[in-house]
């Protein structure tokens, strides 16, 4: 499944995570999440702060209720609606550990101010049991 994660609308600060719909997730599922190296979003109005899904390592930002630190512009995911996050970057594989009826995957752009963001990154999510 492919989705577009928006730098502004899906920002960790002031945005809402991009819901990856119709995955039918269950505890124990393995997710493979990939982003194209050439896709970039911009975190400033002048265009001088562009990055791919790995983010800019020299600009750490603390996000979520646990104040986890990630690189500005990094792609992250959450199974609990942005309370805690895991790193996605250009590629990750993660086992769903959330229990309950169909956990939801949401994807975000790490940033401290969504209002000057623009662009999107395409994400491919594959599920295996």
Short synopsis of the structure:
The chain is mainly β and 129 residues long.
Description:
It is a single chain. By secondary structure, this protein is an all-beta fold. The protein has a single domain (2-128), classed as Galactose-binding lectin (Jelly Rolls, Sandwich), CATH 2.60.120.430. It is 0% helix and 45% strand. It is built from no helices and twelve strands. The protein has strands at residues 2-6, 18-20, 30-35, 41-42, 50-51, 56-63, 68-72, 75-78, 86-87, 91-95, 105-109, 118-128. It is globular and about 45 Å long.
Terminal Cα span: 15 Å
Sequence stretches where pLDDT stays below 50 over 5 or more residues: none
Radius of gyration, Cα only, in angstroms?
Answer: 14 Å
Counted up, domains total 1
Largest sheet: 6 strands, antiparallel
Number of helices: 0
Q: What top-tier CATH class fits best?
A: Mainly Beta
The count of strands amounts to: 12
* Class computed from helices, strands and strand pairing: mainly beta
Mean pLDDT: 93
The percentage helix is: under 10%
Q: CATH superfamily assignment?
A: Galactose-binding lectin
**What CATH architecture label applies?**
Sandwich
Which shape, going by the Cα principal axes?
Answer: globular
SSE order: EEEEEEEEEEEE
> Within the CATH hierarchy, at the fold level, what is the topology?
Jelly Rolls
Strand percentage, roughly? Answer: 35-45%
């Amino acid at each position: 499944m492919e989705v577009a994660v928006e730098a502004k609308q899906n920002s960790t600060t002031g945005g809402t995570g991009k819901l990856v719909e119709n995955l039918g997730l269950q505890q124990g599922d393995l997710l493979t999440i990939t982003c194209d190296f050439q896709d970039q979003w911009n975190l400033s109005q002048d265009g001088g702060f562009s990055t791919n899904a790995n983010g800019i390592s020299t600009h750490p930002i603390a996000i979520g209720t646990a104040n986890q630190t990630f690189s500005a512009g990094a792609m992250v995911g959450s199974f609990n609606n942005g309370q805690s996050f895991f790193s996605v970057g250009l590629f990750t594989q993660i086992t769903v550990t959330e229990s309950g009826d169909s956990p939801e995957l949401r994807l975000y752009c790490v940033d401290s101010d969504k209002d000057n963001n623009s662009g999107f990154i395409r994400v491919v999510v594959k599920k295996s049991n």
